[in-house]
Write a structure and sequence with these properties.
Elements (H helix, E strand, L loop, with lengths): L25 H15 L4 H6 L8
Length: 58
């Protein structure tokens, strides 16, 4: 299995009073991971769009 790891800082505004990340932010984190994964493969969204390739989030 292939893996890709990124690090980023969770902002205080993305957590609740207990310091737990609010679940509504997960989609943003997943998009960040997807963009970084594509970048690690040398693929850009622009090149995908030009090739009429889309990665919809469902």
């Amino acid at each position: 299995m292939r893996t890709n790891e990124i690090s980023f800082r969770i902002r205080y505004s993305e957590t609740d009073q207990m310091g737990v990340v609010y679940h509504g932010n997960y989609a943003q984190y997943l998009e960040l991971a997807r963009v970084e994964w594509l970048r690690s493969l040398g693929i850009s969204y622009k090149s995908m769009e030009e090739g009429r390739i889309m990665l919809p989030v469902i």
